[in-house]
Specification:
It is a single chain. The chain contains five helices and seven strands. The protein is an alpha/beta fold and 168 residues long. The strands form two sheets. A four-stranded mixed sheet has the order 1-5-6-7, covered by helices on one side. It has a three-stranded parallel sheet with strand order 2-3-4, with helices on both faces. The longest helix has 14 residues.
Length: 168
């Protein structure tokens, strides 16, 4: 009879990547500029500049900001540029788009900075469950990066993983 229970997961040579570790902490803001347009649709430059100039930007201190217009207004790019310049040095990150676009950009930034050389020719599991919101595309992006160097890529947990890729 064998002596004790052997934990094969602990003894395996699998490396785990938890995308939750790359979640950027910080308050997220969706800044909808439609409220600064006449009837939410027409941008009048003088009035827009006055509104932008008098806005209290300090509320966005160290925040992660997505610039957005929720109406069908045709907003010239300079308007977003103007708002972005006001947030410069105040917000930690500003992007154009929705909160989902902001999350995408944050994860792209984080994953693109990773040195994945530790995973060269290794079996890697991309952990599936997380407490923080990890967008689906982050799993796809990480898989694409790992396929270039890893021996195998799996998804889930070591005790119940789904094979995604294996080098031939």
């Amino acid at each position: 009879m064998p002596e004790g229970i052997i934990n094969r997961v602990t003894n395996s040579k699998l490396l785990t990547i938890d995308l939750e570790d790359y979640y950027v902490e910080g308050k997220r803001f969706l800044l909808d500029i439609s409220k600064w347009l006449d009837e939410g649709l027409v941008l009048r430059e003088k009035k827009f500049r006055e509104t932008v100039g008098s806005n209290d930007w300090v509320v966005f201190k160290d925040g992660l900001v997505a610039l957005h217009c929720s109406t069908d207004a045709i907003v010239p790019v300079w308007a977003y540029m103007l708002v972005s310049s006001k947030l410069s040095g105040i917000a930690a990150k500003t992007t154009l788009g929705t909160l989902e676009d902001l999350e995408r950009e944050l994860f792209i930034d984080q994953i693109s900075r990773l040195n994945l050389s530790d995973y060269k020719d290794k079996n890697v599991i991309i952990k599936g469950c997380s407490k923080k919101p990890v967008p689906d595309f982050a799993y796809v992006l990480m898989t694409q990066k790992l396929e270039l160097i890893a021996k195998a890529v799996l998804y889930g947990e070591a005790c119940s993983s789904v094979p995604i890729f294996k080098k031939k």
